[in-house]
Amino acid sequence: MENWRLLDLGALQPLEAQTLYEAVAIALDKGLAPSTVILCNPAKPYACLGFHQEIETEIDIEFCQKHDLPIIRRSQGGGATYLDSDQQFYQVIADEKSPVVPYAVNDFFQKFLQATVHACNCLGVPATYKPINDVVVNGRKISGNGAGKTGKAAVLVGNIILDLDYDSMTRVLKVPDEKFRDKLAKSIREWVTSLKQELGYVPPRSKIKKLLIEGYEKIGIALVPGTLTYEEKRIFTEEVKPKHLSGEWLYMPEYRHPEIVKKRTIKVAGDVKVVEASHKAKKMIRVTMEIAFNKIRDILISGDFFMVPETALPKLERDLVNVPLNHDDVLRRVKNFYESFKIQTPGIEPEDIAQAITNAAAE
Questions:
Q1: What element of type H or E holds 94?
Q2: What percent of the chain has pLDDT over 90?
Q3: Which of 69, 112, 152, 166 shows the greatest Cβ crowding within 10 Å of its Cβ?
């Protein structure tokens, strides 16, 4: 049994609820903070974007601005979603050298989501873990989760859905037309649930948190109540908050590839063209690519996948420039990249990335 710090922070403003754990992770990486579990919830609703997603493709920006909904890009992968006070967040920030923390991201999810399963089960909800990163009730998601690393800090963030505003969930997402939105709404109602839907009521938040704490104890973690340090507050104020409020962070993939984004809307002549395609493995991969003389001239890879380390994706994009557009050459380059940087992408393999690129080239 290890002693970890518990930060029970209650309701926080959206940016703090979504990103304060990053300051803890940075402090832990510097040796200034212990392994920690944060329990909190958003005080107000917001739209949340996965680390590798394109905001213009995933979020209805105009709707969010009109309804004063902040849009926050998180530091983990996964898909775009709507979050509000009817969520109970848990955020695990752990020293990767701890014997209770698995190295592989898949194993990290599987072990630590036992606490989420425990809390739901004790409330009378028959929840189970569903690889890669969900907790489900009879196949319907009641908890979404993401994971990543910040230096020596292994991070897992997730929620238990207390109640769900299905209309807002579908409205913040970008869709091609209203007919598609109706289909999306039907799908979300079919595949996402909540404690209220399962039980007929929302249990007290204090009880849910108590059960989560019990769940962590069952996997070898004793949580000791603590407080944020001065250094963690400083890191949040001076480093984390400014980053997340910047356009460069919010429009991240587009900032990396301004030319290719601009060329999406124009026709490129001769042996130069811009193409787009998606490939669905266990996670979605989207490729936008400029091709010149059958080689990759520029490439933007996005989607709802996880990549550890998360910041490795731009390196892969640079590695792929000038690679001939045949499957074997692309796959060889992607595999070499995975091996060189010890990349983990739960739910997708190098073959999936190569296939997404091949699909785009065929457009």
A1: strand 87-95
A2: 87
A3: 112
Among 32-46, 69-83, 253-267, 334-348, whose mean pLDDT is lowest?
253-267
Q: How much is the mean pLDDT over the chain?
A: 94
Q: Is residue 251 part of a domain?
A: no
Closest-CA residue to 44 (of 80, 75, 18, 83)? 83
- CA–CA separation, 158 vs 100, rounded Å? 19
Q: Is the pTM of this model over 0.90?
A: yes
- Helix ranges, the chain (H): 14-29, 55-58, 61-66, 105-122, 166-171, 178-191, 195-199, 205-218, 230-235, 241-245, 247-250, 252-256, 258-263, 313-320, 327-341, 350-361
Band (109; pLDDT cuts 50, 70, 90): very high
Two structure tokens written together for 61: 């920006």
Cα 183 from Cα 187, distance rounded (Å): 6
CA 237-94-143 angle, to 5 degrees, is: 90
Residue 12 is part of which domain span?
A: 2-246
The two structure tokens encoding residue 188:
């979300």
Same domain, 298 and 353: yes
Tell me the mean pLDDT in the region 236-244: 98
**Residues 202 and 268 grouped into a single domain:** no
